[in-house]
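Section 5: illustrative case.
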């Protein structure tokens, strides 16, 4: 294959990319049958551009290397012929990150979502960030999505560091933007998407998704897409079409769930999404791995009410499930 044709076939992360959940059995093993069903349900949504696995939403921090490989194998088997697969790279060390990257490339992933290493919470330098990404880029030619955390966490990349990463690691093709600061977020959009080699901004500001998309993001990558992929796809299309009246209508439906899912503590966001899918009859149970714990009845009631307000759950059905 010529260099030109190889470059033209490279997947560029963009558009609506739900991050799916990972169901577990009561013994905390992966519930493969219901994971397959969940993948099929989400992937059947019109307007998606890819699916993300082995990320926050699949509780990747609690999954072994072999479990992550199995999650990828199942995903490729169920939906690999229909949608590109974005595989998360969650590792505190660059050597392990590179090992995961090689596994994902061999397993059929189309792109990698690179989480920042936890040691960066103690302080990072541009050289550290660059060394981490170069180690991964040397392990695979797959396009990379840099996960941009809030700067206050220590794991976010300052502007100059991010620009250097984009300049010196050509396989970085997008960022998953969780900067949490509106002017900084807008700077990402205006700057990165207008580089000589553009880097797409995929918003994950799911608590204020409408506002974020209006700024001009070229995509969104969100765990709440595991519950409302259709609303995400419709909202993105409405904003892209400059149909703000329709976008506002859709945002009114999304807002109750965003307010509910992204309440504190944030660590429970995907726990809440699992409970939502149980209430919708799409999962049989909402089991999470420690240190996460089962939500209480009062919070499950708030999730039920949010589903009613969003129009996803009939009020009479909600009352019957509460009984």
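Designed sequence:
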């Amino acid at each position: 294959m010529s260099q030109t044709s190889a470059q033209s076939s490279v997947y560029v992360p963009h558009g609506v990319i739900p991050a799916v959940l990972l169901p577990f059995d009561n013994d905390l093993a992966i519930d493969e049958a219901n994971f397959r069903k969940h993948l099929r349900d989400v992937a059947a949504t019109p307007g998606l551009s890819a699916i993300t696995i082995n990320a926050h939403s699949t509780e990747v921090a609690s999954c072994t290397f072999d479990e992550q490989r199995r999650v990828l194998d199942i995903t490729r088997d169920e939906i690999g012929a229909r949608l590109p697969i974005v595989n998360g790279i969650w590792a505190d060390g660059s050597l392990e990150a590179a090992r995961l990257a090689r596994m994902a490339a061999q397993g059929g992933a189309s792109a990698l979502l690179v989480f920042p290493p936890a040691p960066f919470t103690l302080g990072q330098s541009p050289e550290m960030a660059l060394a981490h990404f170069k180690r991964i880029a040397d392990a695979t030619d797959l396009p990379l999505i840099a996960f941009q955390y809030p700067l206050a966490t220590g794991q976010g990349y300052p502007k100059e560091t991010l620009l250097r990463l984009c300049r010196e690691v050509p396989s970085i093709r997008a960022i998953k933007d969780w900067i949490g600061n509106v002017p900084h977020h807008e700077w990402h959009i205006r700057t990165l998407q207008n580089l000589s080699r553009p880097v797409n901004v995929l918003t994950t500001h799911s608590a204020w998704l409408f506002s974020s998309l209006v700024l001009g993001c070229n995509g969104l990558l969100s765990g709440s897409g595991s519950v409302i992929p259709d609303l995400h796809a419709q909202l993105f299309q409405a904003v892209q079409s400059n149909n703000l009246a329709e976008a506002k209508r859709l945002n009114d439906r999304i807002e109750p769930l965003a307010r509910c899912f992204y309440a504190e503590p944030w660590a429970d966001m995907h726990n809440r999404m699992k409970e939502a899918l149980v209430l919708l009859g799409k999962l049989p149970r909402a089991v999470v791995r420690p240190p996460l714990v089962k939500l209480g009845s009062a919070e499950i009631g708030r999730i039920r009410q949010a589903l009613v307000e969003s129009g996803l759950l009939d009020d009479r059905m909600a009352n019957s499930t509460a009984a």
